[in-house]
Design goal:
By secondary structure, the protein is an alpha+beta fold. The chain has helices at about 5-15, 15-20, 70-85, and strands at about 25, 40-45, 50, 55-60, 60-70, 90-95, 100-115, 120-130. The longest helix has 15 residues, at about 70-85. The protein is elongated.
Length: about 130
């Protein structure tokens, strides 16, 4: 399983998020005419650790999650639920056959409003240390 699939499953199957998101977690871009709230994620780096013998098998990519909602309060609530689901997570992510994650760390976040879409957003950057 890829780390992207593991993230998607982790967010869509998380008890605190499942009822709010209804499975609306997408790579790279939202579908046309989306239902809110929704999450779009992007890999923004793909760092890997090496030793003198070559690859260690340890990766620590950074992912940006863009959270979209109709109100600022809904965006903030979604951000808190995502933070609770990911920040500090350690274990097998994505269920059976998932990815062995050593730790997930919230690196940065900010919020705003998109005039064109007329929705609020919350941007969160996470680093996921995992074994490949």
């Amino acid at each position: 399983m890829t780390i992207e699939t593991a993230i998607t499953r982790h967010l869509t199957e998380n008890a605190g998020l499942a009822g709010v998101l209804g499975g609306r977690v997408y790579p790279k871009r939202m579908p046309q005419n989306p239902t809110y709230p929704t999450i779009v994620y992007h890999r923004i780096s793909g760092a890997r650790e090496h030793s003198h013998d070559g690859s260690s098998g340890l990766a620590h990519p950074r992912f940006q999650l863009d959270l979209w909602a109709k109100t600022h309060i809904a965006a903030k609530d979604l951000a808190e639920k995502v933070r609770a689901a990911l920040d500090g997570y350690k274990g097998v992510m994505g269920g059976v056959g998932g990815v062995d994650v050593n730790g997930v760390f919230l690196e940065d976040d900010d919020d705003g409003y998109d005039d064109d879409l007329q929705v609020y957003w919350w941007r969160m950057d996470f680093t996921l240390w995992h074994n490949e």
